[in-house]
Each structure stands twice: as C-alpha cells, then as structure tokens.
Amino acid sequence: AFFWLVSLLLASLIWFVSVHLSDREDARLQYGLLIFGAAVSVLLQEVFRFAYFKLLKKADEGLATISEDGRSPISLRQMAYVSGLSFGIISGVFSVINILADSVGPGIVGIHGDSPYYFITSAFLTMALVLLHTFWGVIFFDACERRRYWCLGLVVASHLLTSGLTFLNPWYEASLVPIFVITLCTGLWAFVTAGGSFRNILKCLSCEQEDESRVMMYSALQVPFED
Fold first, then answer.
1. Any signal peptide, and if so, which residues (predicted)?
2. CB of 128 within 8 A of CB of 180?
3. Under DSSP, is residue 147 helix (H, G, I), strand (E, B) or coil?
4. Which secondary structure element, helix H or strand E, spans residue 176, and what is its range?
C-alpha cells in the first residue's frame, strides 16, 4: 500500500506541475493533461509494483538463508496475492474517499441532470479495480519470475485500458461493462497462473461434499441419552 501511495504522490506532482505550466484557461488542454496524468499514474503504479517485486525477492532470499530447511516460509504466489490485494485495497479506499467527499456536498445527485446512478456505478467500478489489482499482482509477479515480458505488457496494457475506459463516464454502459469483462478475463488468467484448473475446482467441491456427508452421518449416529 505504501508503494502505491508513493506512485500516486509522484503522479500527482507531475500532473500538478504540468497544469501550472500550461494554459489553465484552455479546457481542452486541461482535459488532455488529465488523461496524461492518469496514464502516468498507471505507469508509475506498475513501475512500483516491479520495485516491490524486487524488494520481496531480496527478502525471500534472506528468509531462505536463515530458515532451517533452506526454503522461504512464504511462497512467491502468496506474496503476489498479498501485494496485489494491498494495491487494490488502497486504490479502492482512495476512490471511495473521493466519492464520499462529493456526497457530503449540497444538493442531490441527479437534480441538475447528473446521473442518479453515480454512486452505485462508482461502487461497482471500485470493486472491479480492487479485484483487478489483485489479479494483476498474481500475473505480474509470475511474469517477472519466469521472464515473460509479453505478460507484463498485457498487464500494463489492460491497466491503461481500464483507466482509459473510466473517461467514458457518465456513459456508464460503455465503461462498466467492458471493465467487468476485463475483470472476468483477468481473474481467469490469474486463476490459471496460480495453478488453478477445472479439475481442482471439482476436487474442492467433492471434498466439501464428503465433509458435509461425514457431518450428517456423525449427527445421525448421535443418540441422546435419558436419565
């Protein structure tokens, strides 16, 4: 989360400086700078995700050195999941804070022609971003470990695409639907990357059914005693 905050700080500084050095009366230019700031923010997030990967690799080597069996107690997939989830949570928190800040202002959403679905759509977008950052973390770490640079490129491209789709708002149908399609596809990709398969899902469900049947059999065999 700290690494994500640092990337946001640097992106904000770049956007702030570019706005003050440009013509602030030109609305079209300022909108272009806003898109530029979002793209810089995405790129910096991925750069800091890579920096965090390198830091965790160093820490993993140190943990393996001091462990008794020569292995790190934390796997790379666990670190990737935690890293992506942390990026997603802090990103979602900042998104929600901005939305809540808008909600405490005067007036009611939709009273001046604004969309009445602003808050519910923002909630779904925030949820998608939290999930996406988690999936991106799993894919990104695996790609760095196996040196699959095309996977890294796809992660960065999908992140840029997702960020760019938000500029279609308040045309929410054009932004929300593609973002959730990207989330679903990225989730399946991360699931396969983490070693998941359809066979594993069936084995998991069969184990749950066996556990439930054992509990039912155990409950049926229990006979209450009377004094």
1. 1-19
2. yes
3. coil
4. helix 172-193
- Is residue 139 situated within a structural domain? yes
Domain that holds residue 181: 1-207
Segment 18-56, tens digit of pLDDT: 888 888 788 888 888 889 989 999 999 999 999 998 888
Give residue-wise pLDDT tens across range 52-71: 988 888 877 776 666 666 66
| Residue found under tokens 């008794």 | 68
Residue 222 falls inside a structural domain: no
- 122-125's contacts with Cβ under 8 Å and 24+ in sequence apart are 122/95, 123/99, 124/176, 124/180, 125/95, 125/166, 125/175, 125/176, 125/179
What string of H, E and C letters represents the secondary structure of the chain?
Answer: CHHHHHHHHHHHHHHHHHHHHCCCCCHHHHHHHHHHHHHHHHHHHHHHHHHHHHHHHHHHHHHHHHCCCCCCCCCHHHHHHHHHHHHHHHHHHHHHHHHHHHHCCCCCCCCCCCCCCHHHHHHHHHHHHHHHHHHHHHHHHHHHHHCCHHHHHHHHHHHHHHHHHHHHCCCHHHHHHHHHHHHHHHHHHHHHHCCCCHHHHHHHHHHHHHHHHHHHHHHHHCCCCCC
How many domains are contained in the chain?
A: 1
